[in-house]
Amino acid sequence: MELATLRLFIDVAHAGGFAPVARQRVVDPSLVSRAIAGLEAELGFRLFQRTTRRLALTEAGSRYLATVEPLVRDLAGAAEMARGSTVAGRLTISASVAYGTIRLVPLLPALRAAHPGLEVELILTDRLVDLVTEPVDIAIRMSPTIPPGLIGVPLHPSRYHVYAAPAWVARHGPVSAPVDLAGKPCLLFAGPLQRRQWRFSGPGGGAETVAVDGPIAISSPMAVKAACIAGLGATLLTDWLVADALAAGQLVSLLPDHEASSTAFGSNAWLLYASRTLLPPKIRAGLDFLRAQLGR
């Protein structure tokens, strides 16, 4: 079977249809459909369930995808290694919307200048991408530990504190201890991560939990920051997200000696990739660049 056909199968599986892949490759959808049908005939089993509305992997197709995708990636890496050390091709980097907007987008001119042969695809999503099954080369993720099955390089700490606008402090009074937040309006994160118990670790190492509440919950960290600047509540935000607002005097840290969290302490920004085996020059160059620019 042809390597190009396997790449086509992988693309169709991720796109969930023939038409999106055909548009991307500027070919007729029938050519894509016939290629997949030919692969199914060669394999002797059906890869996709087809209906008039959707295309879904069969159980056998899912197992086949999980097996061949890493192999195809390794073959592509081997080809790049054999061609030499030229840094070229498409480098796909995934990060959260907030981190990508604030920390990565400003680095793109320098990355392009350092490696003009690279095409950079920046996937900004708050969904946790799967580096093994999805076409992503590098991910940056906030976590206390490296996710299982991945290679991780620590970039910098990602510490949370409680912030508020000066106008909020003027209206609601100073906060000198975590317990002072009880009864004051706070901004909460909406959705499954919404937690009304904030944990604090003081300079002495002891931890305490405070119940907080407020009339506004928002799902986007960048929107929570904007609402906090507008004086709508005190909130938990990470240091790299608020550095500009602190410098501009738009926000103040209410308890600078207390690390805060709604989950676990000690989160870091991790540079993640799937495998050290046959690492293509483009991925190695991307890792080195990001580590140099973002590492503490």
TrEMBL record:
InterPro entries: LysR-type_TF_proteobact-type, LysR_HTH_N, LysR_subst-bd, WH-like_DNA-bd_sf, WH_DNA-bd_sf. Gene3D superfamilies: 3.40.190.290, Winged helix-like DNA-binding domain superfamily/Winged helix DNA-binding domain. It holds the Pfam family HTH_1. Keywords: DNA-binding, Transcription, Transcription regulation. Residues 1-58 form the HTH lysR-type domain. Signal peptide: none annotated. GO terms for molecular function: DNA binding; DNA-binding transcription factor activity. Belongs to the LysR transcriptional regulatory family. This is HTH lysR-type domain-containing protein. It comes from Sandarakinorhabdus cyanobacteriorum.
